[in-house]
Give the backbone structure.
Amino acid sequence: MNKYLIALMLLIGTGQAIAQDSTDARRAPISKPKPLTEREKGDRFLKRYLATWDTCSNPKVKCQLYRGFEQIATKDTNYWTSQYYAAFHLALTTFIYIDSANQEKWYDRALMYADRAIRLQPKESESVLLKGMILGMKIGSNPELGRTLGPQSSMLYAEAKKLNPENPRVYLELGESAMYTPEEYGGGKKVAVENLTKAVEKFKTFKYSDPLLPHWGEERAKSILEKAKKLK
């Protein structure tokens, strides 16, 4: 058989096969995307709110963002990060935007979410540390609470350090706390600088396995370290 005729027959056969595949593809049912689980929905909104907080410069908008984090925590009650961020941003909003006369009850609300996060993941350093931080904030709004809440806060910091000695935020909070604690009670410039220096160093190598895990504090650690060095 003429080689050109053979080539033509092969070309026609290939064309028919492609046409048949195309027809079969058009007849095949279109698969619907798999619906998101509540966990996936929560993560999607959490990423959105975190990105908004990080980039927003409008204080009024930031003041209201905690509502979004609380809504996520209310719907997603089985994952510790949802409760963590509700506690963290409620406490931060209280510290920055709420007048001192009304701060205590708001801190208690933040502590509720922190306790939920701890119950869900008892061995998570971040949640334990956050509870200690919020207790410290509460003392700041009412120094009379220092006698009872101060030891609790210190114990939580120590526990968070034991759970994860590589967590840079532990040393950040220990250092900042030492700046406002007299030397006779375990604070002072030397302790503050040592812990803050360690925090800065650990931030350089700390790895985050999930973008939704807490990752704040590096710039704050650098800034507070410079302030600590200037203490008398």
Q: What stands out?
A: The chain has ten helices and no strands. The domain at 35-152 is CATH 1.25.40.10 (Serine Threonine Protein Phosphatase 5, Tetratricopeptide repeat). The radius of gyration is 27 Å. Confidence is low (pLDDT under 50) at residues 3-15.
